[in-house]
């Protein structure tokens, strides 16, 4: 029995019962595919349920504010996915009368949809014979055929896409693509793959050559950048504080945070408080106290953030100040949310 048939037989016996597999409607499948980029299924399922409950159709999602969308997305990371999701929902609802394009060429033109997502939606919803290639598929193919081309290079992307297309069951691309992804997630796992019970082990070249742990090959990223964040947590007698919305193309665009002063390194309390920009930011205050001497380290894919929080007791804040109780209504980075979970305002 060949690779494709063995794979599909395995899938029909072992596939997980996931909510988006109960439909072929493009909206919930699009939603799930965007959520599962850079996210494990176990983490994504609760978010999927919350989004479907809050926004049961693409029209509901389009009518929501970006703040509502980001708040529901909070904790999933890679927030550009949520912003693109919202923008695409507005386009589909407003310009396409709520109807998603019904083929790969139309889908890939939508914001936030690349080759992988367009292929997944086109094959699952419309049975278009286009192969899906994600991290799971790269791993299965690299091991089974012993391919040492790095997966994060143009040559690797082209080679693996061509191979996946060659193996594709053109009569049932929906099942095949889902089988490939599921097989990589459950059987051919990144660590401790289940090689002994694998239905493909007779033909797996990496298993025969003892190269399972070496594949797939991925070129290392550049040097991780270190950043030093100092958050000013203002509080008044009336329990008011300040939040700012992040803008621009950097991390966490659209999310909210306490006033931030970024420094080139970790400073002592004396060094920090003597800086001109700190004095300008805090103004006339009763007291400034460092909340955490040891910085909180928040690791992102391309940078590590070392964050410290400074409690600032202030007599008066600008009109844009909000109640500390209202902070929970705003979408914030996980770094800020973790602080809020343990912070207790000072009693005056």
TrEMBL record:
Q: InterPro entries, from UniProt?
A: A/G_AdeGlyc_MutY, DNA_glycosylase, Endonuclease3_FeS-loop_motif, Endouclease-III_FeS-bd_BS, HhH-GPD_domain, HhH_base_excis_C, MIG/MutY, MutY_C
TM region(s), chain numbering: none
Write out the catalysed reaction: Hydrolyzes free adenine bases from 7,8-dihydro-8-oxoguanine:adenine mismatched double-stranded DNA, leaving an apurinic site
Domain HhH-GPD stretches: 35-186
Please identify the protein, giving its name as recorded. Adenine DNA glycosylase
Q: Tell me which SMART domains the record gives.
A: ENDO3c, FES
The record, for Gene3D superfamilies, names: Helix-hairpin-Helix base-excision DNA repair enzymes (C-terminal), Hypothetical protein, domain 2, Nucleoside Triphosphate Pyrophosphohydrolase
Q: What does this protein do?
A: Adenine glycosylase active on G-A mispairs. MutY also corrects error-prone DNA synthesis past GO lesions which are due to the oxidatively damaged form of guanine: 7,8-dihydro-8-oxoguanine (8-oxo-dGTP).
Q: What is its EC number?
A: 3.2.2.31
Q: So what family is this one in? A: Belongs to the Nth/MutY family.
Q: Which PROSITE patterns match?
A: ENDONUCLEASE_III_1 (PS00764)
* One Pfam family linked to the record: HhH-GPD
Q: What class of enzyme is it?
A: hydrolase
Q: Which residues form the signal peptide?
A: none
Q: Does this UniProt record's set of keywords contain Metal-binding?
A: yes
List keywords of the entry alphabetically: 4Fe-4S, DNA damage, DNA repair, Glycosidase, Hydrolase, Iron, Iron-sulfur, Metal-binding
Q: Which cofactor does it need?
A: [4Fe-4S] cluster
Q: How is the cofactor bound?
A: Binds 1 [4Fe-4S] cluster.
What is the protein's species of origin? Autumnicola musiva
């Amino acid at each position: 029995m060949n690779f494709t048939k063995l794979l599909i037989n395995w899938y029909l016996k072992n596939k997980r019962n996931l909510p988006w597999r109960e439909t072929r409607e493009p909206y919930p499948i699009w939603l799930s595919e965007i959520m599962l980029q850079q996210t494990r299924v176990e983490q994504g399922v609760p978010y999927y349920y919350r989004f479907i409950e809050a926004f049961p159709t693409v029209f509901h999602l389009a009518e929501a504010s970006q703040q509502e969308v980001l708040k529901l997305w909070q904790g999933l990371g890679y927030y550009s996915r949520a912003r693109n999701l919202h923008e695409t929902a507005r386009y589909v609802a407003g310009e396409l009368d709520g109807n998603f394009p019904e083929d790969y060429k139309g889908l890939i033109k939508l914001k936030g949809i690349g080759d992988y997502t367009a292929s997944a939606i086109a094959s699952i919803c419309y049975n278009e014979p286009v192969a899906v290639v994600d991290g799971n598929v790269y791993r299965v193919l690299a091991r089974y055929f012993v391919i040492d081309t790095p997966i994060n290079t143009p040559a690797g992307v082209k080679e693996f896409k061509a191979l996946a297309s060659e193996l594709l069951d053109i009569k049932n691309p929906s099942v095949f693509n889902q089988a490939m992804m599921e097989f990589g997630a459950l059987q051919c796992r990144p660590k401790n793959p289940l090689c002994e019970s694998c239905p493909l082990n007779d033909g797996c070249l990496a298993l025969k050559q003892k190269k399972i742990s070496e594949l797939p090959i991925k070129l290392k990223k550049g040097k991780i950048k270190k950043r030093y964040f100092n958050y000013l947590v203002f509080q008044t007698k009336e329990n008011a504080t300040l939040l700012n919305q992040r803008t621009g193309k950097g991390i966490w665009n659209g999310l909210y945070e306490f006033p931030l002063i970024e420094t080139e390194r970790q400073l002592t309390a004396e060094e920090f408080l003597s800086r001109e920009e700190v004095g300008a930011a805090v103004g006339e205050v009763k007291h400034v106290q460092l909340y955490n001497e040891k910085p909180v380290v928040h690791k992102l894919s391309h940078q590590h953030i070392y964050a410290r929080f400074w409690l600032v007791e202030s007599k008066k804040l600008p009109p844009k100040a909000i109640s500390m109780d209202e902070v929970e209504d705003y979408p914030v980075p996980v770094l800020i949310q973790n602080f809020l979970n343990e912070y207790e305002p000072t009693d005056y």
